[in-house]
Design goal:
single chain; Cyclophilin; Peptidyl-prolyl cis-trans isomerase; globular; alpha+beta
Length: 254
């Protein structure tokens, strides 16, 4: 009887531990972007769930793999996500491809165009709805207070930049004139220098690189994301036997 009780308690403890491990969920979704000029790691914002979920979905489907950065402007941004670019001929005009739906705007004051952020491209539709696949990674440049004052007056129709925006644009840099007009839905955690390298390539009259720069993307698994967040807190990643064993009973997705 005592042995039976011990076995039952051990089973309960085992199930509780398994449930605890399986219940862990990362705070964010992360996407590894690989390019001909280097790699970078993207964290998607939870404040823009429509854009986040759509980007994760397309990435898992392999939608972005082998696509080009088809529009590159130095000190501004690098743009990709046009499916027509996968097999594009030399000099072919690009920038109009994508799924047959748009994403409703999720423009927020606290999410702005500092260097290293990702924004959703769009056409001139009045609702500022985003392209479902085309995106840009911000390079931009550093601004002075005088330059920001001028932008407020002549480009932002009198709307003032917050102290946080001003500090970012005067130190890290970015593209402040896009704020309020396009949805920003994530930021690079590393690899910003990759954007600089892509932005340096020579381009034609349509801003398309003369030498193709391709991309591929992968969404980090649940465990990879959890370990990334642990390391950000100064903790060791969980890679032991029991973690790997319990992970066998949980989905890699989340």
């Amino acid at each position: 009887m005592k042995n039976l009780i011990k076995k039952c308690l051990a089973l309960v403890l085992f199930l509780a531990l398994a449930g605890s491990v399986m219940a862990e969920t990362p705070l964010y979704h992360y996407v590894l972007i690989k390019t001909d000029k280097g790699d970078c790691l993207l964290r998607l914002y939870n404040e823009t769930p429509k854009h986040r979920d759509n980007f994760v979905k397309l990435t898992k489907e392999g939608y972005f793999d082998s696509l080009l950065f088809h529009r590159v402007i130095h000190n501004f941004m690098v743009q990709g996500g046009d499916p027509d670019s996968r097999y594009a001929a030399e000099k072919q005009a690009l920038g109009n491809g994508g799924p047959d739906y748009k994403i409703n705007a999720e423009i927020q004051d606290g999410l702005f165009h500092r260097k290293g952020t990702i924004g959703a491209a769009r056409d001139n539709n009045p609702g500022k709805q985003s392209s479902a696949s085309q995106f840009y990674l911000v390079q931009g440049r550093v601004f002075t207070d005088t330059a920001l004052d001028s932008l407020e007056q002549f480009r932002m129709q009198g709307k003032k930049f917050s102290p946080e925006q001003r500090e970012a644009y005067k130190t890290v840099g970015g593209t402040p004139h896009l704020d309020g007009n396009y949805t920003v839905f994530g930021e690079l955690l590393n690899g910003i220098e990759t954007i600089d390298k892509i932005a340096e390539v020579k381009t034609d009259e349509r801003d398309r690189p003369l030498q193709d720069v391709r991309m591929s993307m992968t969404v980090l698994t649940r465990r990879e994301a959890l370990n990334l967040e642990r390391e950000a807190q100064g903790l060791k990643p969980k890679t032991g036997f029991f973690t790997r064993f319990f992970d066998l009973f949980s989905s890699k997705d989340y």
